[in-house]
Backbone:
C-alpha cells in the first residue's frame, strides 16, 4: 500500500473567491426563500433590539440620571427618549422597565425562530446535496468508477455536503445578521453624532487591507489541507477494504507507519491553514482599543462636557464594539467561505459530471429514463444477439477488442473462455451497455441496442457476478431486489431452485432474517446462491454468469450446476468461465485471446481440434490419465450424437 496523490489532489482551483461557483451552490439555499424572508424579519427584530433600541434607551436613561441633583423616587423620574429621530417625550422610568421587558420577550421569540429555521435549512441543504450527488452517482457510467476511488466519493457525499450545508445555512445567516446589525448601527450612530461616527469608521480601510492580504493565504492553505484530508479518507477506505490482505501479509507495522505519515501530513497542513486566522483577533483588538481612545479624547478635549454628555460618550464607546466586532466576524466568515469553496468546487464537479452512456432524447421520450421507466412501452426481448464488427478501447489507442463479429441465436448458451485480459468480460460488459463499442454496433433482436433504453435492456438481463454482493437487509429483500414486486411465493420458489431455501429456513426468522454488514455471517457460496436467486426471480431473457462458480466449493458448484441447467434452458445465456468443467454442456464455446476469437465450437469439437481450448482444458485436468480422458470424450460424443 502507498499514499497516492491523485489528479484531484493536484488540481489547481481558482485562487480567488469565485462568485460563479457560489452562484451554483446558492440555489440550494434560495429554494427555501419563504423561510429566508421569515429569517430576515426575525433577525431584524433581534438586531434592532440589540444595536438600536437598547443602546438608545439606556443612553437616554443614563443622561437623565446623570442630570439629577438629588436622590428622588425613580417612579417619579421622567425623561425624553429619541430613537432614530423619533422622540418620545415625558417617558416614565416604569415605562422604560416595561419596554425593556417586552423587548426581551420579542427578542427571545425571534431568536428561537431564527435558530430553529437555520437548523432546518442546514439539514435541508445537506440532504438535497446528498440526494443530487447520489442520483448522479447512480447515473454515471462504469468508466467513471474505473478512475475514481470510492473514498473520494464518500468524502464528497459525506464531509463536503455537511460542510457546505453548515456554511450555506449558518454562514449566510450570520452574514445577514451582521449586515443588518451594521446598517442599523450606522444609522443610529450618524443620527446621534456624525463626527464620532466618522472617527469609528476611520479604521475600516486598515481592516480591509488586512482582510485582503490574509484571505489570499487562507484560501490557498485551506485547499491544500482539504486535499490532504481527502487523500486520508481514500487511504482509510482502502485499508478497511483490504484489512484481510494486510493481516495475511503481516504488514500492520508498515500500514501503521503510513497512518502516522498521512495523519501528520493532514495535521501540519491544517495547522498552517489555521495560523493566519489567529492573527485576526489580536489585530482587531488593537484597532478597537485605538478607536476607543480616539472617541474618549474627542469627547473630552474637542467637544468638552458642555457639548457632549457622558451618556453619548458611553454610547459611542459601545458602538466601537458594534462596528468592529461584526467586521471581525466578516473576516472570519470570509476565511470560512473561501476555505469551503474548495468543498463546493469538488461537490459541484461531481454533481455536474455527465455519464458517458446515455440514451438519446427520442429514446427517453418513448421508454423513460433509469429513474422513470415507461415499462408499458417496453418490447419483449427475444434474445437474438449480434456483435457486428465491434471494437472497443478503454483508453485512447489501447484497443482490447478487435473487430468482433458474433451471432448468438435466441436460446443459445454461449460460454466465453480465455486467459486474463483476453476480452471475455469486455464482451459481456458491452452487451450490458456498461460501456459502448468504439466501433461497430450491437444488435438485439435485429435492432441496434442504442435504439432502446438502458432500463429496457437491463431489466431483461440477469447478471451473476464473480464476487457476490449481499445487501444489509433481509434474505427476502435481497432476493426481491431482482424483482421489486415479487410475491413471497416467487421468492421462495427462486430460492428452492438454487437450493438455498432450507438454509434460510434454518434461521429463527427465516426469510425475514436481517443480514448485517453485507452478509458477513454467510459463506461466499451462500452469498452466491442468493445472487443466483436474485437473478432468477426476474425471469430474464438474457442470463449472464461472470465466473459465477469460481469462488465456491465443489459441492456447491454441483448444486449450482444442476440449477443452471434448469435456469438456462430456453434462455440466451453468456457464461464467462475459468473452471472449464462447468461449461462442457454449453451449446457453444467461444475461445478468446488478445481481444480476438481464436476458436468457436462446442466442447467436443474443440477438444477434437486439439487447439488452444484443448490446451487450457488439459492444463486444468492434467491429473487425469489419458485413458480416463478419452473414455470421457467417447461418452460425451455418444451423448451428443457427434460420432
Residues:
Amino acid at each position: 500500500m502507498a499514499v497516492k496523490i491523485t489528479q484531484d489532489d493536484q488540481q489547481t482551483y481558482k485562487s480567488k473567491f469565485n462568485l460563479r461557483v457560489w452562484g451554483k451552490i446558492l440555489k440550494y439555499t434560495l429554494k427555501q426563500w419563504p423561510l429566508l424572508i421569515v429569517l430576515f424579519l426575525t433577525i431584524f427584530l433581534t438586531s434592532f433590539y440589540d444595536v438600536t433600541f437598547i443602546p438608545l434607551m439606556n443612553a437616554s436613561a443614563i443622561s437623565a440620571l446623570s442630570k439629577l441633583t438629588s436622590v428622588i423616587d425613580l417612579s417619579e423620574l421622567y425623561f425624553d427618549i429619541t430613537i432614530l429621530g423619533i422622540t418620545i417625550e415625558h417617558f416614565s422610568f416604569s415605562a422604560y422597565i416595561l419596554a425593556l421587558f417586552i423587548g426581551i420577550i420579542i427578542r427571545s421569540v425571534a431568536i428561537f425562530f431564527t435558530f430553529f429555521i437555520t437548523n432546518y435549512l442546514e439539514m435541508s441543504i445537506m440532504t438535497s446535496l446528498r440526494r443530487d450527488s447520489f442520483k448522479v452517482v447512480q447515473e454515471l457510467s462504469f468508466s467513471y468508477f474505473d478512475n475514481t476511488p470510492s473514498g473520494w466519493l464518500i468524502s464528497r457525499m459525506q464531509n463536503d455536503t455537511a460542510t457546505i450545508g453548515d456554511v450555506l445555512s449558518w454562514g449566510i445567516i450570520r452574514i445577514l445578521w451582521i449586515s443588518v446589525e451594521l446598517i442599523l448601527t450606522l444609522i443610529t450612530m450618524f443620527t446621534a453624532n456624525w463626527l464620532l461616527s466618522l472617527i469609528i469608521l476611520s479604521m475600516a480601510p486598515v481592516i480591509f487591507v488586512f482582510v485582503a492580504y490574509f484571505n489570499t493565504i487562507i484560501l490557498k492553505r485551506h485547499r491544500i489541507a482539504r486535499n490532504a484530508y481527502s487523500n486520508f479518507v481514500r487511504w482509510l477506505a482502502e485499508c478497511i477494504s483490504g484489512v484481510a490482505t494486510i493481516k495475511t501479509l503481516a504488514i500492520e507495522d508498515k500500514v501503521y507507519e503510513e497512518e502516522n505519515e498521512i495523519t501528520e501530513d493532514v495535521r501540519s497542513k491544517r495547522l498552517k491553514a489555521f495560523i493566519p486566522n489567529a492573527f485576526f483577533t489580536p489585530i482587531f483588538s488593537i484597532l478597537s482599543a485605538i478607536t476607543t481612545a480616539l472617541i474618549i479624547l474627542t469627547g473630552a478635549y474637542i467637544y468638552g462636557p458642555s457639548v457632549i454628555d457622558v451618556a453619548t460618550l458611553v454610547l459611542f464607546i459601545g458602538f466601537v464594539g458594534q462596528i468592529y466586532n461584526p467586521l471581525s466576524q466578516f473576516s472570519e466568515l470570509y476565511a470560512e467561505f473561501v476555505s469551503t469553496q474548495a468543498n463546493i468546487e469538488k461537490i459541484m464537479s461531481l454533481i455536474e459530471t455527465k455519464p458517458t452512456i446515455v440514451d438519446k432524447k427520442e429514446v427517453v421520450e418513448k421508454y423513460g429514463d433509469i429513474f422513470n421507466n415507461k415499462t408499458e412501452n417496453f418490447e419483449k426481448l427475444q434474445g437474438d444477439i449480434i456483435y457486428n464488427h465491434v471494437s472497443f478501447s478503454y483508453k485512447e489507442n489501447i484497443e482490447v477488442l478487435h473487430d468482433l463479429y458474433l451471432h448468438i441465436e435466441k436460446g443459445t448458451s454461449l460460454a466465453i473462455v480465455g486467459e486474463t485480459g483476453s476480452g471475455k468480460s469486455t464482451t459481456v460488459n458491452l452487451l450490458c451497455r456498461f460501456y459502448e463499442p468504439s466501433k461497430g454496433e450491437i444488435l438485439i433482436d435485429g435492432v441496434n441496442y442504442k435504439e432502446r433504453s438502458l432500463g429496457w435492456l437491463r431489466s431483461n438481463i440477469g447478471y451473476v457476478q464473480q464476487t457476490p454482493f449481499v445487501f444489509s437487509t433481509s434474505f427476502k429483500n435481497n432476493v426481491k431486489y431482482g424483482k421489486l414486486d415479487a410475491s413471497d411465493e416467487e421468492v421462495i420458489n427462486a430460492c428452492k431452485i438454487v437450493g438455498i431455501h432450507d438454509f434460510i429456513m434454518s434461521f429463527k426468522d427465516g426469510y425475514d432474517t436481517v443480514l448485517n454488514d453485507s452478509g458477513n455471517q454467510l459463506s461466499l457460496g451462500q452469498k452466491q446462491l442468493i445472487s443466483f436467486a436474485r437473478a432468477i426471480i426476474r425471469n430474464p431473457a438474457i442470463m449472464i454468469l461472470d465466473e459465477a462458480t469460481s469462488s465456491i466449493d465443489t459441492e456447491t458448484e454441483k448444486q449450482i450446476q444442476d440449477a443452471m441447467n434448469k435456469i438456462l434452458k430456453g434462455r440466451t445465456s453468456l457464461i464467462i468461465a475459468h473452471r472449464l468443467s462447468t461449461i462442457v454442456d454449453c451449446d457453444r464455446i467461444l475461445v478468446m485471446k488478445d481481444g480476438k476469437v481464436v476458436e468457436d465450437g462446442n466442447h467436443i469439437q474443440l477438444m477434437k481440434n486439439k487447439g488452444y481450448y484443448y490446451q487450457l482444458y488439459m492444463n486444468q485436468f492434467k491429473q487425469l490419465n489419458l485413458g480416463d480422458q478419452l473414455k470421457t470424450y467417447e461418452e460425451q460424443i455418444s451423448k451428443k450424437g457427434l460420432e
